[in-house]
Amino acid sequence: MGLKQSALKKEINSLRNEARRSAAKHEEELAAATNDNRRLQLKVDELKDIATKAQLEVEKIKSELLQQEERMKVLKWELMELPLHAAIAALTYSEDGPFELLSNFYSRYPISSQLLDHQRRPPLFYALEQHWDLEILSWLVDKSLDTVMEKDTDGKAIVTQAIMNNCPEELTIRLAVAAASRCVNAVEELLSGQHYENARRVGLLGAG
User: Fold this and answer.
1) Rounded distance, CA 168 to CA 107, Å?
2) 20 to 30 A from 104, CA-CA: which of 59, 172, 189, 190?
3) Alpha-carbon gap, residue 200 to 146, rounded angstroms
4) Could you tell me the pTM of the whole model?
5) At 180, is the secondary structure helix, strand, or coil?
6) In sequence order, what are the residues at sequence separation of 6 or more whose Cβ sits closer than 8 angstroms to the Cβ of residue 137?
7) Which CATH number fits domain 85-207: 1.25.40, 1.10.510, 3.90.1150, 2.60.40?
8) What is the DSSP string of 140-177?
């Protein structure tokens, strides 16, 4: 009887130990599976982040391409509709014969010196920006006096552009006098027609 009880206890202890080992192994497997799931989730999150960044980069590239396409449309339009703008943009004062080329463009399209581009700037604006020499600037100023009252999309007048780019003083004065003269004439005409508010606005425009 004692031997049977002893054998039974051993069997029970053996089963308990086996159950503990099985439970421990199960916990290890569960912990390993949890870690695997955690690593997998981190990888998924990383891939999602990469995909999001890639999508943003694609959208950025699309936007840049659209902007380039719009710029090309503007350039093509300017080349066809604003030949003097296109010529000044393509030339520099140091190249051979720019005056002859500009004169040729002007002779074909005499109104082109007064046309404004998409930023409301006449050709003279860009010649001043490039610091062309006195001969060409003087010639272009003479052809551009009807644009002296215009302001570009930044609110900058051609006289302001001349001053900012250190245009020769005699040309700056010529532009300023032309602007003042046109402003006075416009104000007088409006006042004679009793358009007082419009006259005030033109006066302020000329003062600006």
Assistant:
1) 26
2) 172
3) 21
4) 0.55
5) helix
6) 124, 127, 128, 167, 168, 171
7) 1.25.40
8) HHHH-GGGTT-B-TTS-BHHHHHHHTT--HHHHHHHHH
